[in-house]
Amino acid sequence: MAELLRTEKLRKYFGMVSATDDIDLRIEDGVLTSIIGPNGAGKTTLINLLTGNLLPDSGKIFFQGEEITHLPTHKRVKKGMCRSFQIMNIFPKLSVFENLQIPVLSLLDRSLSFFKHVRSHHDANERVEKLLTEIGLIEKKDLPAGTLSHGDQRLLEIGLAMAPEPKLLFLDEPTAGMNPVERLKVLENIRRLSREKEATFVIIEHDMDIVFSLSDRIVVLHRGQILADGKPDQIKEDEAVRKVYLGEEILWERV
User: Fold this and answer.
1) What is the pLDDT of residue 109?
2) Residues of the chain above pLDDT 90, percent
3) Which of the chain's termini has less CB crowding within 10 Å, N or C?
């Protein structure tokens, strides 16, 4: 499969603590990848480095064959790399449709004329309608975003991250705080979007039921290093992974 992203000896220190230590990682097009690890393993730091929220102390990052190690976040977005965050990032008083209009118009370099000519942007509005259909919120497009359930707000946030039409999309704990029904709805949408190749997803997740049911590949981090990397069945049987997670809330046998 085609390579989307690659890192070489990626390092980041916070004082004397090594948050990422010589990370060599390869993300392939169309492979839904989960990144897991105990608290403090370096998961969020790694995603922050890949998406430009942090700069590495050493090492290199390549996206679609181009080095982007020191490229600002907004330029990485333009090249096709986006992310969602653990903290909800929506406009609660705007409608669901309007929330998605803003990044779509920005993608088309029309954000300055948004409030004056909003109804005249037919191509942008068509893109918003398509996004709403893809994430399963088309029936709720006129509702204020703040009135949506927690699960639907998470779906909207995924839609916001997809609005710039990314090739690679990082989701940081997309089902955090959801009840089982909401979690199932979000998982089904992520699985379908991945299958339809709307984007290549990389997910940080703590729920092992989600990780093993959703992933094509799992990368396990421990103390800033890659401990294991493989298909779900391989990770389940990895003794080093079992030892690291001993005492954690993960029960492989229930998956």
Assistant:
1) 67
2) 54
3) N
Residue 94, pLDDT above cutoff 90: yes
How far from chain centre, in Å, is Cα 129? 22
**Nearest Cα to 88, choosing from 44, 32, 148?**
148
Q: Which amino acid is at 186?
A: V
3-state helix, strand, coil in the chain (%, to 5): 40, 25, 35
Record: fold of 3-254: Rossmann fold (3.40.50)
Closest by CA position to 199, among listed 3, 32, 47: 32
Q: Which two three-digit tokens encode residue 64?
A: 């679609």
Length of the chain: 255
Residue 250 structure tokens: 């993960």
pTM of the model: 0.85
Q: Which of 24, 11, 33 has the alpha carbon at shortest distance from 219?
A: 33
Torsion of CA 177, 32, 194, 164, to 10 degrees: 80
Q: What is the mean pLDDT of residues 61-75?
A: 96
Segments making up each domain of the chain, as ranges: 3-254
Residue 118's pLDDT is 52
Is residue 212 helix, strand or coil? helix
